[in-house]
Design brief:
Layout (H helix, E strand, L loop, with lengths): L1 H16 L8 E4 H4 E3 L5 E10 L12 H13 L14 E10 L8 E8 L10 E8 L5 E8 L5 E4 L4 E4 L4 E10 L12 E6 L4 H18 L5 E3 L4 E5 L6 H8 L3 E4 L4 E5 L4 E4 L4 E18 L2 E3 L10 E3 L2 E17 L2 H11 L3 H13 L3 E2 L1 E4 L1
Parallel strand pairs: 15-22
Antiparallel strand pairs: 1-14, 2-11, 3-4, 3-6, 4-5, 5-10, 6-7, 7-10, 8-9, 11-13, 12-13, 15-16, 17-20, 17-21, 18-19
Length: about 375
């Protein structure tokens, strides 16, 4: 009788609270794991001139487009440019790029990046003159102008040069003013499309369930559907305001899940092991063979009063050493056990990389191995 009551109580708890989530699942807000499809950024690009450089600009002979741009700018200002070729090196041709934020309105400011096109050595101390920034559709959305901030520096003398950072690119904080708004309006839509930053079917379905649970209480019915592992479609209820609906949904808590991965960067020796990575029971032996070759040439002198010549006699010593060779048993049902087993072998990160690759080849690594 007691057992039956316990089973009935367990079924009632499962019905109320849903299936029990795994212990490794992490809770996060929807705004932290997904982005609004209509709220993406748009890239802008433009071509301009940086003036006021201290002799570190483009050589006009090597960069003829810089001189053409300078003459065109002066003609637009009503200044005649007829005459000989200029040899000034106080200006540079640059590419100007920026990201137009979602829902940006005319009059707001954004940061711009400035990069040299010619043979200028530094943009430090320069000023970007008025430059129009266009989108992929060819329309002008912003105008940039202002002092260029360069983080690197360069010092040069007669026999030495010191350079730190990059001096041919910089940034103009709040240097662009938005002149045109995007054609689409947020409230013109009939639904919301949320895109997971890390696509996963489990996370997408849990997000849809969390939104539907909230919508059932607030609006009387479900509104969300997981289309695939990345997109979740949320239909707008008739009595709801789209902005308020998004504000309410983005703060809902969702249990996230990700596939097991091991990311290896062989250039830097970085190893990142996910929380869900498991290793089947396997024996590992790791040993390194070091071969050292030493050249010690010797000078051989001829005997006294002889007609011999001084000669060089080669002498080579070769020594081979083999380290390690111990056998360790790895059985990683969780992340802590796996890391402890790898540390017990006592090898460096490059050795751990080789071991993980070998475990994957043996079929004992229950995770995706990503090599960078």
């Amino acid at each position: 009788m007691i057992m039956k009551r316990f089973i009935a109580l367990s079924l009632a708890i499962a019905t109320l609270f849903g299936p029990v989530q795994p212990a490794f699942a992490d809770a996060a807000r929807i705004k932290d794991i997904a982005s609004l499809q209509a709220g993406r950024e748009n890239q802008l690009i433009g071509y301009g001139l940086v003036v006021g450089l201290q002799g570190s600009g483009d050589s006009l002979r090597s960069s003829p487009f810089t001189e053409q741009s300078m003459r065109a700018m002066l003609q637009n200002l009503g200044i005649s440019t007829q005459g000989g070729q200029s040899s000034a090196k106080n200006l540079a041709a640059v590419m100007v790029t920026a990201n137009l934020p979602p829902f940006a309105s005319p009059g707001s400011r954004i940061d711009v990046n400035v990069s040299s096109l010619g043979d200028a050595t530094s943009l430090r101390g320069g000023t970007l003159v008025m430059t129009s920034l266009s989108g992929a559709d060819g329309q002008i959305y912003a105008v940039a102008q202002g002092a260029v901030v360069v983080s690197g520096f360069q010092a040069q003398g007669a026999a030495a040069t010191l350079t730190e950072g990059v001096t041919t690119s910089g940034r103009v904080p709040n240097g662009a003013i938005i002149e045109r708004e995007l054609p689409s309006k947020f409230k013109d839509g009939v639904n919301l499309v949320l895109q997971l930053r890390n696509p996963d079917f489990s996370t997408a379905q849990r997000m849809a369930d969390a939104v539907n649970m909230f919508a059932s209480q607030r609006y009387g019915g479900p509104v969300a559907e997981a289309r695939d592992s990345q997109e979740i479609i949320i239909s707008k209820p008739r009595q709801a305001d789209l902005t308020r609906l998004m504000a309410e949904i983005e703060n809902l808590i969702v249990q996230t899940d990700t596939p097991a991965k091991v990311v290896i960067n062989e250039r830097t020796g970085t190893i990142v092991i996910g929380a869900d990575v498991k290793v089947s029971r396997v024996a590992v032996s790791y040993g390194t063979l070091t071969v050292q070759v030493t050249e010690t040439p010797q000078i051989v002198q001829p005997e006294p009063f002889s007609r011999g010549e001084t000669a060089v006699q080669d002498q080579t010593d070769i020594m081979a050493m083999k380290d390690g060779g111990q056998v360790a048993i790895l059985n990683g049902p969780d992340l802590r056990t796996l890391v402890a087993g790898l540390n017990s072998i006592g090898v460096k990160p490059d050795g751990i990389i080789a071991i993980l690759q070998g475990i994957k080849s043996a079929g004992a690594l229950q995770a995706e191995l990503v090599l960078q």
